């Protein structure tokens, strides 16, 4: 079967130039089935015919467009050698030789790739890629049979895999496709070539073959050869058809080389790198699901839940109009995280306070008011500091003979404000990202606020980081964060005049100087102020959070009072 | 950030908290297209927003084919009408370095700065107080220029240099890999290189001349002036500058999305070394 693919076949030169003519005729006749891939099996041997027909049965019309791989089944299927070449045989001999050729040929193929190239072949490199390869073995076997081209050989060829051959086949396929268009011209060339190559291969052919042999030389470093690499690259370019391919050809070349390595290492690398993404996604998925699980209990908690959970999405909408915001999906996740917070803690009211950016991680802050009597606080620490003063004075009295006594008394530590008053009016929870655990921040002390006013430090994102500064900050990052939150709230939380009003319960202004104006509530009669009034002057805006005095507290604590009491004692 | 992928870029950069309101976004999409057509730019970048007391400036930049050639800067107060700003010169920068404080928001506002200048009349040399008027537009130009030179960022491999000189966008840039994305050395300053020549020969031997022709962020002084964070697990890397607070650079590893935006008051953070 000589599948002559007709024009494609390039002119493989063969040493058996004679065979060409007859083959040509045959090919001419059988040009129809050009499956493009099929190549004439030239029984003749060695040759090129060897390179077999790629696709074998010409008929299978492998559509030109079909991927080369399909067609190129056998590595060997070398492109149909030009009808001319090889074929030196006469059809009658074909049948005989085919079978013989099949066996030996395969064994040879795999071993010699290079030598193939050296055999005289078609001058068209592309087409001869396969052909070239197969020629070698064929030449070896030439003594034996040549013919091969028999279909049997083809079948065998398909079986054996040879990467390089595949590539070249692909290339050949493409060129075959192109060449169909040029069939006429090719055909003519074939003819002429056959004429030329009737006798010994011409110097042109030898030059071509040696060039091809050079290209097929394997690199000692990487095991690739230029011929295959070029054919890979061209295949890729033709597959992808990028714009201005010539400008990015070097990158394409690199990509093709890298592709050799990718398969092995892919799974290992990807797994390690993508893990944090999956973990975060899992955490956030838990956020989304927790709402569903508690559906049953929600009815009971609805009354409380309504007032405690803020409508974050609505406020985010308004903020977005002003150009401030975190993005819709981020805000939604924060909303879910707040819901999780309210579900796990007994919270009266909760509000999304904001986000503080840090060096390594960020903080999402929620302002929370616990229900009456629900918060557990540690009140132990305050007593310790007060005792220290007494201890020092005792120690010094023992050494009065030797050491001078100091009369200096450390200034009294100003006590922090009670919870729910002043700077500690609200409790703050922070988390690093929605889905992460919420951590409660400790209440703030006046000393911390005073020092926080003097230093300026970035947050790292980890709550236990020590703050190294001058003046030294009493506490670690969680205390600094709490102090800054208190200062920001006191300085910037504003509302339109009249929106809040004081609770009307207090009638005793004489006795409780401190607790006088602590609580405020929304004014139900508030009717809103014209936007123009709000924008033009600031007198329509008021702070609704108590200002923090320079002492560090909202309500003045007189340190002198207590010392007077001590002296009396 | 590229005007073509404006919406996606804004979404990715929203972690810093400052973004754009929907009406501004919509007007930007249309007006930047018109700017590109009118001025015939190759690419238009939305640079960011400088907050002023009365109004904000929205800044855009246009690039020509050569990515490193000086960019043209435009500003707008309403995201619809854009005006071209003059290129920055050295003396502008020097002149405006004395102005401190927030931007007003009015481009014709003039800052008054009194200087003591030595004037000599004949033989006498005495100092006189001279009041120098500095226009806000000048200040705007120099601040944008300083920010660009100091903290505009581009990932390694996004641009490549052709042998003839011009810098082109690399069409085969597929994004940094995850391990590369976490290192500061894979990001470059988007400006003419300043420190490349100071590298030792040994270091230069490792560089790829077509890709490594800009300064990396790694050796910025002070060290630690960049905060690098991964958001959404490992799906987004965000660089924030601490020297010019408000500059955010984002990149989604293994994709082509990257960009930077500045939303801030236009004031350099001089206290940086004390804050770290």
From TrEMBL, chain A:
A single GO cellular-component term from the record reads: radial spoke
The protein's gene is named RSH4A
Q: What is its main location?
A: cytoplasm
> Sorted alphabetically, which InterPro entries does this protein's record hold?
Radial_spoke
The residue ranges flagged as biased composition, category Acidic residues, are 372-402
Alphabetically sorted, this entry's keywords are:
Cell projection, Cilium, Cytoplasm, Cytoskeleton
Return the Pfam families for the record: Radial_spoke
Give the protein name, as stated in the record: Radial spoke head protein 4 homolog A
Q: Per the record, where are the segments of Low complexity compositional bias?
A: 33-44
Automatic annotation (TrEMBL), chain B:
Where is this protein found? Cell projection, Kinocilium; Cytoplasm, Cytoskeleton, Flagellum axoneme
For this UniProt record, the keywords arranged alphabetically read as follows: Cell projection, Cilium, Cilium biogenesis/degradation, Cytoplasm, Cytoskeleton, Flagellum
Major location (coarse) = other
Q: Does the keyword Cytoplasm apply?
A: yes
- Record GO cellular component, one term: kinocilium
What is any one GO biological process for this UniProt entry?
A: cilium movement involved in cell motility
Superkingdom of origin? Eukaryota
Q: Does the keyword Cytoplasm apply?
A: yes
The entry sums up its family as follows:
Belongs to the flagellar radial spoke RSP9 family.
Query: Which protein, by its recorded name, is this?
Result: Radial spoke head protein 9 homolog
Species for this entry: Neovison vison
């Amino acid at each position: 079967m000589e599948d002559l693919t007709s024009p494609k076949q390039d002119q493989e030169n063969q040493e058996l130039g004679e065979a060409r003519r007859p083959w040509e005729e045959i090919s001419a006749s059988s040009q129809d089935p050009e499956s493009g891939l099929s190549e004439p099996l030239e029984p003749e041997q060695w040759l090129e015919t060897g390179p077999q027909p790629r696709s074998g049965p010409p008929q299978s019309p492998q559509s030109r467009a079909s991927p080369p791989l399909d067609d190129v089944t056998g590595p060997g299927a070398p492109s149909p050698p030009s009808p001319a070449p090889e074929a030196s045989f006469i059809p009658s001999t074909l049948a005989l030789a085919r079978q013989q050729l099949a066996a030996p040929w395969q064994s040879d193929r795999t071993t010699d790739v290079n030598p193939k190239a050296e055999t005289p072949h078609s001058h068209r490199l592309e087409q001869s890629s396969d052909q070239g390869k197969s020629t070698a073995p064929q030449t070896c076997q030439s003594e034996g049979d040549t013919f091969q081209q028999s279909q049997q050989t083809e079948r065998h060829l398909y079986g054996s895999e040879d990467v390089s051959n595949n590539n070249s086949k692909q290339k050949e396929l493409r060129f075959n496709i192109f060449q169909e268009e040029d069939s006429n011209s090719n055909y003519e060339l074939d003819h002429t070539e056959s004429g030329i190559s009737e006798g010994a291969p011409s110097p042109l052919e030898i030059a071509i073959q040696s060039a091809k042999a050079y290209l097929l030389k394997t690199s000692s470093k990487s095991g690739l050869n230029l011929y295959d690499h070029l054919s890979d690259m061209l295949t890729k370019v033709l597959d992808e058809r990028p714009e201005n391919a010539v400008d990015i050809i070097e990158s394409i070349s690199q990509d093709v080389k890298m592709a050799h390595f990718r398969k092995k290492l892919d799974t290992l690398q990807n797994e390690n790198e993508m893990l944090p993404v999956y973990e975060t996604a899992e955490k956030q998925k838990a956020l989304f699901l927790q709402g569903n699980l508690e559906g049953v209990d929600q009815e009971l908690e609805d009354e409380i839940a309504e007032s405690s959970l803020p409508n974050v999405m609505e406020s985010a909408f308004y903020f977005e109009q002003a150009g401030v915001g975190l993005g819709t999906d981020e805000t939604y996740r924060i909303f879910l995280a707040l819901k999780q917070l309210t579900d796990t803690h007994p919270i009266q009211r909760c509000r999304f306070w904001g986000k503080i950016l840090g060096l390594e991680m960020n903080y999402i802050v929620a302002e929370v008011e616990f229900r009456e009597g629900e918060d557990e606080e540690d009140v132990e620490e305050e007593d310790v500091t007060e005792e220290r003063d007494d201890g020092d004075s005792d120690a010094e009295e023992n050494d009065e003979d030797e050491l001078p006594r100091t009369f200096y008394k450390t200034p009294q530590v100003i006590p922090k404000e009670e919870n729910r008053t002043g700077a500690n009016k609200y409790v703050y929870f922070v988390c690093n990202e929605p889905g992460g655990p919420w951590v409660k921040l400790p209440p703030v002390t006046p000393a911390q606020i005073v020092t926080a006013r003097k230093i300026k430090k970035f947050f790292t994102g980890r709550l236990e980081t020590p703050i190294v500064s001058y003046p030294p900050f009493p506490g670690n990052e969680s205390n600094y964060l709490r102090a800054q939150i208190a200062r920001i709230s006191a300085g910037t939380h504003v509302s339109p005049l009249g929106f809040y009003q004081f609770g009307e319960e207090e009638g005793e202004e004489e006795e409780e100087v401190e607790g006088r104006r602590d609580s405020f509530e929304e004014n139900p009669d508030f009717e809103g102020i014209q936007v123009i009034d709000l924008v033009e002057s600031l007198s329509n805006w008021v702070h609704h959070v108590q200002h923090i005095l320079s002492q560090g507290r909202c309500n003045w604590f007189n340190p002198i009072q207590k010392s007077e009491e001590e002296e009396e004692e | 950030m590229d005007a073509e992928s404006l919406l996606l870029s804004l979404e990715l950069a929203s972690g810093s908290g400052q973004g754009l309101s929907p009406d501004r976004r919509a007007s930007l999409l249309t007006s930047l297209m018109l700017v590109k057509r009118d001025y015939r730019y190759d690419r238009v970048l939305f640079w960011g927003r400088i907050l002023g007391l009365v109004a904000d400036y929205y800044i855009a930049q246009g690039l020509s084919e050569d990515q490193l050639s000086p960019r043209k800067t435009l500003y707008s107060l309403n995201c619809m009408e854009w005006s071209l700003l003059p290129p920055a010169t050295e003396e502008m920068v020097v002149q405006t370095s004395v102005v401190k404080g927030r931007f007003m928001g009015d481009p014709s506002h003039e800052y008054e700065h009194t200087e003591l200048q030595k004037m000599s009349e004949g033989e006498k040399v005495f100092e006189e107080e001279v009041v120098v008027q500095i226009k806000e537009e000048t200040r705007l130009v120099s601040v944008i220029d300083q920010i660009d030179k100091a903290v505009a960022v581009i990932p390694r491999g996004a641009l490549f240099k052709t042998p003839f000189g011009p810098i082109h966008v690399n069409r085969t840039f597929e994004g940094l890999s995850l391990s590369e994305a976490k290192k500061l050395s894979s990001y470059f300053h988007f400006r003419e290189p300043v420190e490349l020549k100071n590298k030792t020969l040994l270091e230069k031997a490792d560089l790829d001349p077509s890709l490594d022709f800009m300064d990396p962020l790694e050796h910025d002084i002070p060290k630690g002036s960049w905060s690098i964070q991964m958001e959404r697990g490992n799906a987004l890397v965000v660089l924030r500058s601490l020297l010019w607070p408000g500059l955010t650079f984002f990149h989604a590893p293994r994709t082509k999305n990257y960009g930077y935006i500045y939303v801030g008051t236009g004031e350099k953070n001089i206290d940086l070394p004390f804050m770290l």
